[in-house]
Amino acid sequence: MTAHEALGEAAETMRAVRDRCVWTQQIDHRALVPYLVEESAELIDAVEAGDRADLREELGDLLWQVLFHAEIASRDDIDPFDIDDVARGLTEKMVRRHPHVFADAVATTPEEVLVHWNAAKAAEKSARSSVLDGVSHHMPSLALAQKVLGKAAGVGVGLDLAEAVAAAEAIAADEPDVLPETEEDLGETLLGLVAVARAKGWDAERALRTAIRAIEAEVRAAES
């Protein structure tokens, strides 16, 4: 069985389940979201654990979520589309974003690849009025913070490295060697900051998201 045939069989299996399974029939896009989040988290666990068998299984579970959403969409009364439409749209987008592969553009370094990617993405999203448009607040707060800081830097907004170091030193004034030098050190530092929040009765998640909103406000102010 070829890869194309295997994917087709998976799509047909999803279609049959939707037709014949009473639980599946009552699920819509919104009801499916918690399962998508769960399966994504399990895939991340498999990647980080380095377990090849789990990785293969969890990739399949995540693919099932894609097939599930596409099958639900295919039965929409107003704007139906199916897994083939999804695949075609993906292929067209990836071809546009890789002109150094599918056209005559040149990219000999990862940095040059990102230039082409970002240029193509900017052209596709030309209707957006802010660099923050399209950034999902459903992302985990740390990932969201990193994403927003990257976007903010593009418009000259946000903490610079010196300010970030100063802020960290102020928090850990009694332990000047606490500043991380490796990614592992960073993890321990972040965990330590969460411990500080817990000891003081603060909500670490809320604190970070509040700081993110402040940066976002600065970005939108700078753009306007």
List keywords for this structure.
single chain; 224 residues; mainly alpha; Helix Hairpins; 3 domains; 11 helices; 73% helix; 0% strand; globular
What is this entry, summarized?
The protein is mostly helical. The protein has eleven helices and no strands.
Question: Can you walk through the features of this model?
Answer:
Keywords: Hydrolase. Residues 29-102 form the NTP pyrophosphohydrolase MazG-like domain. Its EC number is 3.6.1.8. One of its GO terms (molecular function) is ATP diphosphatase activity. One of its GO terms (biological process) is dUTP catabolic process. The protein starts with a helix and ends with a helix. The protein is mostly helical. The mean pLDDT is 87. It is globular and about 60 Å long. The chain has eleven helices and no strands. 73% of the residues lie in helices and 0% in strands. Helix 1 crosses helix 4, helix 3 (29-49) packs antiparallel against helix 4 (52-74) and helix 8 packs parallel to helix 11. The chain folds into three domains: 3-77, MazG-like (Helix Hairpins); 82-127; 141-223, no CATH class.
The general outline is globular
The first-to-last residue Cα distance is: 55 Å
- Helical segment tally? 11
Largest sheet: none
Structural class: mainly alpha
- Compute the CA-based radius of gyration: 22 Å
Contiguous uncertain segments of 5+ residues: none
